[in-house]
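Same chain as my last thread, 472 residues:
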Amino acid sequence: MSELTPEETALLNRVQAPAGQGREIPDAATREIIGRAPELSVADLDDAIARAKAAQSGWEALGHAQRSALLLKVADAIDANAEPLARILSREQGKPLNGPNARFEVGACSAWLRTAASTVLEPEVIVDDGETHAELHYRAIGVVGAIGPWNWPMMIAIWQIAPSLRMGNTVVIKPSEYTPLSVLAMVAVMNEVLPADVLIAISGGREVGARLAAHPDIDKVMFTGSTATGRKIIESSAGNLARLTLELGGNDAGIVLPGTDPQAIAQDLFWGAFINTGQTCAALKRLYVHDSIYDDVVDALKGIAEQTPMGDGLDEANVLGPLQNRQQFDIVSRLVEDARANGGRIVTGGAPATELGELFYPITLVADVKDGDALVDEEQFGPALPIIRYSDVEDAVASANRLNVGLGASVWGDREQAREVAARVQAGTVWINSHGGVHPMIPFGGVKGSGYGLEFGVEGLKSVAVPQIING
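reply #2:
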């Protein structure tokens, strides 16, 4: 493992547990220990929520303009610490520094903060007929409990934090047990600017997350993660009727229409599937390709896969990294082996890349699979893409819609034809000739088993606020 820089060391020393305490966090690529995450208790969480509740009214009273100004300064602070934050993230999560990875993620954090700070949400006049004047306003909810994932730990944390703070809420955030250090470090930087107890990060185990979702003083829960955990959060939050935003599991389908040029779309298809080595909720996870161009699309993707460097994220040449944890590595391995056993054709990859390290799995393209195969029906969340042949577009749409998930999807081909097909696909977002791109002003959320609630832009601000009608 390359040595920690002085800047990394200084940041980690601000947030990690003392020597001999806490939980050891390994480098995802080398498995060497990079730091120790504090293991706080439910009692610590209760204290944090009490402090956040006490700070909320004062934070809300600052008003939108002053809160926005502070958030812009927070974005500046993240930018000033961008490189050590990116290096900690790369070590802990595994994603390389370059490409759409660690430096990209840290840059997205400041970009989303600036957008949340600058987005205007004006009161809306509902009725003004000379007799009645009614306006719709949005007020702070109170204390937001945020529970983050391990795949994009810093960026998704900001998706939860930035709009919540902008609208006058305080936030208690629990990062994933797999990737706590990067989020703790980022929150420490943010708290150099923010007033005390407006944003509190709590590192702990599952019992802390369960208590956060069920706590009577949590007014809103934001969660990104699996559908199974999302269901548990719904149950836990019922006692206090906390509002919810849930971005849950997906198994995004892509449909390549006949007449599409495989070479023209191959790069975007590849990164739609394999950004962050496939460990992305809205990655392309099952690809339906028309029979007339099927072999050409497979060959084009194979060519890119064989030329894209994978390895330790701190090596500036790499743009693909390891699986973040053993559990996910085992899921990918199992699904690929099942596809092989059921007649799937391994085009490239197909076996662990042990020469790179313990949790490396190469880009794996599996052709000649079908609906019903485990690799098609289960979310692999890793670098293995099933490619399914179809001959009728209606069949491809039916296949895309057959599973009880609907986070994202994409249609590739002539724009007008693609839009017509997209309108019949059941997903929160359907991209045309791209997949997975998000924008801080474009609402994002899932349907069916992929959750509910919107994030980003004006709709994202509304989702972390309560509507109030002023009538008279």
